[in-house]
Write a structure and sequence with these properties.
Length: 91
């Protein structure tokens, strides 16, 4: 259940980041570079996925930060202690 909650929170993060990047574009705080890809309007309304470089890049960076922190936590708390508790023969 905790994993499902984490995935849902990650999804909410991506929606919020996309929405905030788009609002900063509308305010003129960041540039808008349109991509010529077909993203349906409902994707922008429901999931804040807009066909601009800035919004998609912001969402990609947010996803990489979340996945990277998960991988680092997994390594430091699970994989590394197992590796250190089983010494290699001959060392």
């Amino acid at each position: 259940m905790l994993v499902v909650t984490g995935v849902l929170l990650g999804f909410v993060l991506l929606v919020m980041v996309g929405e905030e990047a788009q609002e900063m574009q509308q305010a003129g705080w960041i540039h808008t570079t349109l991509l010529h890809i077909a993203i349906p309007n409902w994707m922008g309304v429901w999931f804040s996925v807009f066909p601009t470089v800035q919004t998609l890049l912001a969402q990609l960076i947010a996803a990489l930060l979340v996945l990277g922190s998960y991988a680092l936590a997994n390594y430091t708390h699970i994989l590394r202690p197992k590796h250190l508790s089983h010494p290699q023969p001959g060392r």
